[in-house]
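Agenda item 2: magnesium ion complex prediction
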Amino acid sequence: MRVLYRLRAKGYDSYLVGGSVRDILLGKEPKDFDIATNARPEQICALFHRCRLIGRRFRLAHIYFGREAIEVVTFRGADSGTQQEHVTESGRILSDNVFGNIEEDALRRDFTVNALYYNIEDFSIVDYTDGMTDLRAGVLRLIGDPETRYREDPVRMLRAVRLATKLDFIIDKASAEAIETLGDLLQDISASRLFEEVRKLFLSGAAAATCQALREYGLFQYLFPETCKAIAHSNASSDWLLIEKAMYNTDERIREDKPVTPAFLLAVLLWPAVKELVTQRRFSRVPPAQALDQAGAVVAGEQSQVISIPKRFSHPMREIWRMQPRFDQTGKKSAERLMHHPRFRAAYDFLLLRSEVGEVDPELVQWWTAAQLGNEELQRKRAASARRRRGRKRHRGTH
Ligand code: ATP
Ligand code: MG
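Presented output:
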């Protein structure tokens, strides 16, 4: 509101737009707030203390309030006339750096329900694409011709699946059908952009439903090709089950406000590929632990061609895999060492999932559950005796 009113006070038009308007109208809490204005990026930044311009080709302003940023974007226009230079052979838009008016800005957005503008002049909703009708009917509809719009930016296919699941909307027929034939365009999307999208797909609280929908629309195979190949090869239903269970657990953890990490989910999502490769290496007599480590490296490397996984996630992911065979060693020393590993909890959760789908003997998991309880007991005792020792010292000190 402060950003909107400050822009207005300086004579600019400004509107709240996008997901925030959509979510507020649906009675949901918006994740972030976007503002569209006719002020140019430099003009926006001149009005706010904590403003940063980001983006090279199309610059937009981030205005910070504490750690949160409000994104303020100048209306964008359709770049007609010179279209050819900005579009690849498949129709993908490479640059869109033309300013426009509010109506052009609306038509460039992806879905009709994402193109609603809240106007502080008269508290009305400005709607150029009949988005209100779709919002009331619960329909996610691409603006314009679906095929053209997916070709311009194939990530819109992932957004369609994610938003439909999140909002519990139906994807309009034409917008849905085009996805089924154009999925392979996702192969042209940069690996770093796909990572950000995958993160939103699986860490927004509806991972299970989203994963199911991705498979139904045939998009999952473009995100995790090696996993799909491995499952097709092994033909083991437990592989999908493992993934499904992990998704449900993730959603539940988010509901309970517990932390979730992409590392764990990626470890699950790529596990079928790792197992497949381990089997192959075992044939050529590589020792098991080494085979697992090598398979992990290969799978992580191949996957990062599709979805770039930052090291802070790929390292723990591979550690979760590497720790799995160590659970077989239940000797006192090695068990204690494993339990003190910083990644123990994640690796144990992974083991638990594997046992739930029949990959690991449940008795082994029970052993580790008990061992942890014993260990906690032991830790409590140690902490108590340390406290007693400190207490005695303090006592002595006062005399
Ligand atoms: P979320 O709840 O995930 O934030 P959102 O719709 O707000 O959903 P954002 O990524 O925050 O998604 O984008 C804000 C707005 O920018 C969208 O509502 C839409 O109007 C526009 N937009 C985002 N991505 C695209 C795209 N790929 N093509 C066209 N318009 C887009
Ligand atoms: Mg948003």
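Discussion summary: The first strand starts at residue 14 and ends at 17.
Owner for follow-up: CH.
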